[in-house]
């Protein structure tokens, strides 16, 4: 189950899992984007399908789980990757924008972990949950104030749930992408900001979506069976850079 699976980063993660034999369920708002991604997955010999769902309500997520359970029999991987952003200066952020970003980036993760976590626990399923974090949840970044707050919350709930469910064979980890051009951050990638990012990234380039495949397969397979509560950074060295 990849919430946000029609997007660029989570879409690449879905393709990696499908290539390894998983049946993937893309959850998002755009059937057109999902169709394009599923066509590539199918062409590569993978399996998957799309479901539109209201991820901001418990009822919507419960219906999503019921639909997937009926069609696929069981779910044992959850990726929380939906996200939105805005470059509004701090003193100008309206409450509506603040509430909307928190709803998509933080509340939806909270609700999905509740709904799917209960399902995993009630059914004794050995499961892996990946919550998509952000470099802004680790190192403060300018111009993305509300987004940074929501991602810090995602990092925190991931560690809390990893501790809570460690003996229940439910692993919870955070994938922390560095700078990957994607739909939600293109509006803040001005030439000046790109120059700043490259000056702080030892590899001197942006990440490619498919470069999240390795960490995805590690955290969703037996190879990562002793990894929980981790924040795995995939950033071309950004977090290692000082001066």
Order of helices and strands: EHEHEHEHEHEHHE
**What assembly state would you assign to the polypeptide chains in this entry?**
single chain
Average of the residue pLDDT scores: 95
Percent range for helical residues?
A: 40-55%
What count of helical segments does DSSP give? 7
Structural account:
The protein has 243 residues and is an alpha/beta fold. It contains seven helices and seven strands. The chain has helices at 8-19, 31-43, 58-72, 95-122, 145-165, 191-199, 213-220, and strands at 2-3, 23-28, 47-52, 77-80, 127-132, 170-177, 231-234. A seven-stranded parallel β-sheet has the order 3-2-1-4-5-6-7, sandwiched between helices. α4 (95-122) packs parallel to α5. The chain is globular and about 50 Å long. The model has no long low-confidence stretch (mean pLDDT 95).
List the keywords.
single chain; 243 residues; alpha/beta; globular
Would you spell out the secondary-structure blueprint of this structure?
Layout: E1 2-3, H1 8-19, E2 23-28, H2 31-43, E3 47-52, H3 58-72, E4 77-80, H4 95-122, E5 127-132, H5 145-165, E6 170-177, H6 191-199, H7 213-220, E7 231-234
Parallel strand pairs: 1-2, 1-4, 2-3, 4-5, 5-6, 6-7
């Amino acid at each position: 189950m990849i919430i946000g699976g029609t997007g660029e980063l989570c879409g690449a993660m879905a393709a990696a899992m499908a290539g390894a034999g998983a049946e993937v369920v893309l959850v998002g708002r755009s059937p057109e984007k999902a169709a394009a991604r599923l066509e590539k997955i199918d062409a590569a010999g993978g399996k998957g399908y799309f479901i539109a769902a209201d991820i901001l309500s418990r009822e919507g997520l419960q219906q999503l789980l019921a639909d997937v359970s009926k069609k696929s029999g069981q779910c044992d991987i959850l990726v929380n990757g939906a996200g939105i952003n805005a470059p509004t200066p701090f003193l100008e952020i309206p409450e509506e924008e603040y509430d909307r970003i928190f709803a998509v980036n933080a509340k939806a993760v909270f609700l999905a972990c509740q709904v799917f976590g209960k399902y995993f626990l009630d059914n004794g399923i050995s499961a892996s949950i990946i919550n998509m974090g952000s470099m802004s949840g680790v190192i403060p970044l300018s111009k993305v104030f509300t987004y940074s707050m929501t991602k810090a919350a995602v990092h925190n709930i991931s560690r809390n749930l990893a501790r809570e469910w460690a003996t229940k064979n439910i692993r919870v980890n955070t994938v922390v992408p560095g700078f990957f051009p994607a739909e939600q951050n293109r509006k803040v990638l001005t030439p000046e900001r790109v120059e700043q990012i490259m000056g702080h990234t030892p590899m001197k380039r942006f990440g490619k979506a498919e470069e999240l495949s390795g960490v995805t397969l590690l955290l969703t397979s037996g190879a990562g069976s002793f990894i929980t509560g981790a924040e795995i950074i995939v950033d071309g060295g950004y977090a290692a850079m000082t001066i």
